[in-house]
Amino acid sequence: MATVRRRKREMVERQVAKHLQMYRASGAELIMGNGRFVAPKTLEVNLNDGSTRELAADKIFLNVGTHAAIPNVPGLEAAQPLTHVEALELDIDFIGGRTRTRTLDPLIKSQQFSQRR
Predict the structure, then answer these.
(1) Is 84 helix (H, G, I), strand (E, B) or coil?
(2) Which residues contact 77 (CB under 8 A, 6 or more apart)?
(3) What angle do CA 99, 100, 106 make, to 5 degrees?
(4) In terms of Cα–Cα distance, which of 16, 20, 54 is closest to 35?
(5) 45 vs 56, 83, 86, 114, CA distance in Å?
(6) Surface-to-core class of residue 33, CB atoms within 10 Å of its CB (0-12 exposed, 13-18 middle, 19+ buried)
(7) Where in the chain are the domains?
(8) pTM for this one?
(9) Which residues touch 21 (CB under 8 Å, ≥6 apart)?
């Protein structure tokens, strides 16, 4: 399973590198960080390098990505739910048509998971 996780990470890194290369080639300015509107048509961005930048334009395109978030539901955080990010990092063995999750075995001993075809 370690090989599968490593290959998945390498695949994601290649995709990110390819997309960054395409942005650079397009001539567009790629600004990476966390932003918020501070006035009409004006963003304040906390850049990934730690600096801050204010941007203003008539039209603003926001590519918000896919950041996993756990909603503020009473008791949910204590239950330690998995987002898609953590689920892809589970140590899972595939044996025949069944899935056995070593990490969660004590919790799901009585349940069987079958691959759907």
Answers:
(1) helix
(2) 70
(3) 145
(4) 54
(5) 11, 26, 27, 46
(6) middle
(7) 1-30, 31-65, 68-117
(8) 0.46
(9) none
- Check if the beta carbon of residue 69 is closer than 8 Å to that of residue 82: no
> Could you tell me the two tokens for 109?
């001993």
- Joined tokens for residue 32: 């990476």
Q: Which residue has the tokens 């069944």?
A: 98
The pLDDT tens digits for 75-93 are 888 888 888 777 777 766 5
Residue holding tokens 């961005």? 45
| Lookup: tokens for 59 | 């039209």
pLDDT tens-digit map of 25-81 = 988 888 888 889 999 999 999 999 999 999 999 988 777 766 777 888 888 888 888
Beta bridge partners of 34: 46
Q: Please, which residues bridge with residue 112 across strands?
A: none
